[in-house]
Fold this sequence. Notes:
The protein starts with a helix and ends with a helix. Helices cover 68% and strands 0% of the residues. It has 5 helices and no strands.
Amino acid sequence: MDAEARALLWRCRRGMKELDVLLGRYAAAALPRADAAERRLLARLLEHPDPELAGYLLAGEAPPEPEMAALVTRITTSCIIGPQT
């Protein structure tokens, strides 16, 4: 994993255990092969406060941006069915 990916993985550590698990598992699996756009999108998602992230990732709320909503779906789906290879 390169330095940028490791920095994003570190930013996935949050104040809620549930978010740590979801974001950390997704990042560990996806970041090594993620392109620059995917990494930027994840970085933007991580700018949201924990209560908002919990709403998106745990309560089924949808972010207003379609790209962000698609990322949230990828994160939650990958943690339910496991990392895609």
